[in-house]
Amino acid sequence: QRPILRLLSCPGTVAEDLRRDEQPSGSVETGFEDKIPRKRFSEMQNERREQAQRTVLIRCPEKISEKKFLKYLSQHGPINNHFFYESFGLYAVVEFCRKESVGSLQNGTRTPSMAMETAIPFRSRFLSLKLKNQTSEQSCIQSSDQLPPSNRKLFEITLLCRKYDQLNTLLKEFQLTEENTKLRYLTCSLIEDIAAAYFPDCVVRPFGSSVNTFGKLGCDLDMFLDLDETRNLSTHKTSGNFLTEFQVKNVPSERIATQKILSVIGECLDHFGPGCVGVQKILNARCPLVRFSHQASGFQCDLTTNNRIALTSSELLYIYGTLDSRVRALVFGIRCWARAHSLTSSIPGAWITNFSLTMMVIFFLQRRSPPILPTLDSLKTLADAEDKCIIEGNNCTFVRDLNRIKPSGNTETLELLLKEFFEYFGNFAFNKNSINIRQGREQNKPDSSPLYIQNPFETSLNISKNVSQSQLQKFVDLAQESAWVLQQKDTDRLSVSNNQPWGLAAILLPTVPNRRSFTKKKRKRSANESVRNLLESLKSNRTANFTETNEK
Ligand code: CTP
Ligand code: MG
């Protein structure tokens, strides 16, 4: 169950936000002029992990003075950064400048005593702040939002957007915020503390969309319990003629070891993990995992341990997402489009996943002329000795330093790329070809799976093996239809003043049953009706909100 997160501050309307952000008309939208700092994935992960280790999560009283709160905590040392958010109560994330401050704060913290229940005495970095006497404080706190904009807002954003590019606006609204990213690393760090009770040298690393630059607000938090340090400590060189080894228990396979470790960590999270609820051990899956909700952050977490390759594919996607800013904008647009048409779902099943969609976008961008993204094989040729990486016999070597990859000379606009994406996949020979980002070209399918996207590192695996023929057909139909809608291009743009959808807004409309059999005229009329209805309800909603705010 997702907690409800509420924004305390009073934001302006979307239209106001957009006006503020409008770019001068006529500016060219390409990706490579972007000046994003190009940090290596490992650097970024290490920095954020170290920050998270100096950070605490505090449940606060409903009414609190920010100034007094910071003064109280500063007794333990200077604070580097803090923010508040709401999730069934008010929480604060406080990052100290020094790690010792966390210890000092914990030393002055007691285990609560309760009348009816008994507390399990577990000292974590998730604390609760109580007022000593019941005098209520004046609240003057701005909290940050951790949830994505609603579908209604999504539509409003893309509809109202004129000069400013629709896809980039969507990206800005849906991407993970700095606060949300901090909260993700902190949650991993809190879980690492619990796992460290058994494995003191373990590291819990976020992977997947939380770190690969394609994460949308509200996406799950994939965690990797890294036990390599624990395993490799024995490789220290010692002098003398002897070698010491730990006495250990042996099990018949890596898979059984994984299951045993996750089983015990799962129990631990269930019994001692503050805020960890709904713990499920899914140990018979192809990749065994422990799934749980971290209530205080609102994240749905998947903890795994023997899939280091997934961490490497997150690093590869991070590189693709950082190389050219058009990549993320296009992926977000396609993800939102797929969600709006129920092509993807939060429930596992025969649908296309966001990971597969991201691979399709990358492949498409490799196929442009000139290519916008390099193939994985060409990233491999740019690698140096330090980048060499073999995991379980799979060659995972590719260049890690983003500055060594030449920017693309392609200047196509996002608007064109979106249309071409639908056209490309609306006509792709899925029946005989597979998608392969390693070589950046179609290949014959090695089996009869409806959709075949080769896993870039475990090359004998298909990452979209779960997708059924009917789900693939739905994707193809919608892609063809969206390409058609986008081709109506500039004439639609003129209709903005008549509140008619254009560009992305037009293809985010929910599918009308049997829409494909509609005549063009009918199709247009039904879209216009939907927009009119939506705008009417937006207007009345705004009036209601306005009245509500004024009444408070
Ligand atoms: N993964 C993989 N092969 C698969 C599925 C997943 O290698 N068949 C890896 C990918 O690195 C992926 C990560 O596991 O990024 C997490 O999977 P998932 O949560 O399904 O996808 P995300 O990319 O995190 O996207 P979402 O926002 O939907 O969670
Ligand atoms: Mg995920």
Give the SSE map:
Elements: H1 14-21, H2 41-53, E1 55-60, H3 66-74, E2 79-86, E3 90-96, H4 100-107, E4 126-128, E5 143-144, H5 151-160, H6 166-174, H7 178-195, E6 203-207, E7 221-226, H8 228-232, H9 254-272, E8 276-282, E9 289-294, E10 299-304, H10 308-323, H11 325-340, H12 354-366, H13 376-381, E11 390-391, E12 394-395, H14 414-426, E13 433-434, E14 443-444, H15 469-487, H16 489-493, H17 503-507, H18 520-551
This protein binds cytidine-5'-triphosphate and magnesium ion (MG).
Cytidine-5'-triphosphate is lined by residues 207-209, 212, 215, 219-220, 222, 310, 313-314, 353-355, 463.
Strand order of the largest sheet: 4-1-3-2-5
Poorly predicted spans: 1-30, 512-527, 539-552
Radius of gyration: 25 Å
Q: What is the makeup of the main sheet? A: 5 strands, mixed
Task: Name the descriptors.
12% strand; 18 helices; binds cytidine-5'-triphosphate; binds magnesium ion; alpha+beta; disordered C terminus; five-stranded mixed β-sheet; 552 residues; globular
Describe what you observe in this structure.
This protein is an alpha+beta fold and 552 residues long. It has helices at residues 14-21, 41-53, 66-74, 100-107, 151-160, 166-174, 178-195, 228-232, 254-272, 308-323, 325-340, 354-366, 376-381, 414-426, 469-487, 489-493, 503-507, 520-551, and strands at 55-60, 79-86, 90-96, 126-128, 143-144, 203-207, 221-226, 276-282, 289-294, 299-304, 390-391, 394-395, 433-434, 443-444. The strands form 4 sheets. A 5-stranded mixed β-sheet has the order 4-1-3-2-5, sandwiched between helices. The longest helix has 32 residues, at 520-551. Bound molecules: cytidine-5'-triphosphate (CTP) and magnesium ion. Magnesium ion (MG) binds at residues 208-209, 219-220, 222. It comes from Macaca fascicularis (Crab-eating macaque). Residues 538-548 have a biased composition (Polar residues).
